[in-house]
Design a protein that fits this description.
Layout lengths: L1 E2 L5 E2 L23 E3 L6 E4 L13 E5 L2 E6 L5 E2 L4 E3 L7 E5 L12 E5 L3 E8 L2 E9 L14
Length: 151
Amino acid sequence: MVRASGGLQVFNGSIMVDAGGTNTNGTLNPAPGLIFGGPTSGEGIASKRLNDGTGNTWGLDFFTAFQSRLSIDNNGDTRIFDHTLYLRADDNHGLGWFGSTKLFAGDSVDGPVLFGYTGGALGTEQYGTEKIALSRSVGGKRCPTLDRHLF
């Protein structure tokens, strides 16, 4: 390890976090993990090492405020729990789960909602050929693309 100015750490090799497999609950505190900003910050990455049939064993959990916000499991599946995935730098374009504890347009949808600022579409892409299956615009007006043959 070489220490440079300003607290920068330079490593030539690997860094092992929890090589002993002691993180049995998959959290940041008090279990081992990669913590950003000190022990009370709540931001970091942890990996549960105990296979007891619960939680995200051998996956990665990303935390803010000590709450798991995003998980990548050992098979590569990604979960954002009840949070919204925003597709742009604003809050007007996204995909999220909405239900009784998180309403969309005042409704308990109990499922996924894909939304955009002035409209959006659901479609398919096969080998570079894109087709729109359903589209909406501002005000709930039907877009002309609905009248196209899809297959």
